[in-house]
Write a structure and sequence with these properties.
CATH architecture of the largest domain: 3-Layer(aba) Sandwich
Shape: globular
Number of domains: 2
Largest sheet: 6 strands, parallel
CATH topology of the largest domain: Rossmann fold
Strand order of the largest sheet: 11-10-9-13-14-15
Order of helices and strands: HEHEEHEHEHEHEEEHEEEHEHEHEHEH
Number of strands: 16
Structural class: alpha/beta
Radius of gyration: 21 Å
Helix content: 25-40%
CATH superfamily of the largest domain: Glycogen Phosphorylase B
Oligomer: single chain
Number of helices: 12
Length: 343
């Protein structure tokens, strides 16, 4: 969201609504947006409370466009009570994926019979525009009965800073493999752990930046890096994430679902080769954007090792040369904003 907000213009005209914890986290950090008064997440299941805060948002901030960034239950309730706002107010829904996608194996998304799923089915279609991060999200929108002409497909804005430290260890000639992300069952980081164990000869160097996921290993073989320290609310991800990519040659993605995984495209901008399971759609989009993408067949450690060896065979210069890019989707998102604003 932070990168996207930069495209919207005047800080005084951008009001971001956060829960109490997010408000406390953001209030005293440098940012390019104003904060509304915080809502209390524990009370969002009470419809009267939702109606009250939406009425106050209407009176205090007088929005012309409401960006429902990330979707979810609160977004569905905002759409349920959109009548509170002026009829000219436009609502744009951006699904984050887990609000409409489902995978029972890793307990991802809402069950079909759940009240949350029913709320989404009933009220998501009331939005005016639907920002889709990729083909999978577009298909989910269509399955909800949303008209195709209301769907605008483009990725998140990803911007690589110019002041990234060069932290690559050229003295270590091994291929360096990175694993990064918040810990969630769909990420399946345990697979990466199994890959490290298979590499008994320590042929490869592994870097992990996976807050919440850790295992004991020789630091010369698998090195764990601290979670990010967020000092400002302007650029995302923080600079230490970009520094992490600069330590690596390959980004290993073990996720079952990754329609638009930011880490995929951050790594691509940083010149890394992307290794991802063949049926995960994020790899297809990364390849279309011109990044080097290799795939493995199954969610098994031996299959991943096979993919690493294929990269090693075909990318002989992988530890020496990186081709960087500056940003992704800036032009497309400016077009989205213009289309919504002029509708």
């Amino acid at each position: 969201m932070l990168n996207f907000v930069q495209l919207l213009g005047n800080k005084k005209l951008i009001h971001v609504a956060l829960g109490l914890r997010g408000f406390k986290y953001s209030a005293f950090k440098k940012r390019q947006f104003s904060l509304t008064f915080p809502y209390l997440g524990k009370l969002l299941n009470i419809d009267f409370y939702v109606v009250l805060i939406l009425f106050l948002y209407k009176v205090l901030y007088k929005p012309d466009i409401i960006w429902l960034y990330g979707g979810g239950i609160f977004s569905a309730k905002v759409l349920k009570y959109r009548w509170i706002f002026n009829k000219k107010v436009k609502f744009v829904l951006r699904s984050a994926g887990e609000d409409i996608q489902r995978d029972k194996i890793v307990n991802y998304g809402y069950d079909d019979e759940s009240s949350e799923r029913s709320l989404i089915l009933d009220f998501y279609p009331k939005a005016d525009f639907f920002w889709s991060l990729g083909d999978e999200i577009t298909s989910e929108y269509l399955s909800l009965g949303i008209k195709k002409h209301k769907i605008i497909q483009t990725g998140n804005l990803v911007i690589r800073p110019i002041d990234v430290d060069q932290q690559y260890n050229f003295a270590d000639e091994r291929i360096k493999i990175g694993v990064i992300g918040r810990y969630h069952p769909k990420k399946q980081f345990e697979l990466a752990k199994d890959v490290v164990k298979i590499d008994k000869d320590k042929k490869y160097k592994f870097h992990f930046k996976t807050p919440g996921f850790f295992f004991n290993a020789d630091t010369n073989h698998a090195e764990f890096h601290d979670g990010s320290a967020v000092n400002e609310m302007i650029n995302w991800p923080p600079i230490d994430v970009w520094n992490f990519y600069n330590k690596c040659d390959i980004l290993l993605i073990t996720s079952r679902i990754e329609s638009f995984g930011n880490v995929t495209f951050e790594a691509g901008l940083s010149g890394l080769v992307i290794l991802i399971q063949k049926d995960v759609t994020g790899g297809k989009l990364a390849r279309e954007l011109g990044f080097k993408v290799y795939t493995y067949d199954n969610f098994e450690s031996k299959s991943i090792i096979k993919g690493i060896k294929e990269i090693e065979k075909n990318e002989s210069n992988i530890t020496r040369k990186k081709i960087y890019k500056d940003s992704l989707f800036s032009k497309e998102l400016k077009s989205l904003i213009e289309r919504v604003s002029n509708a």
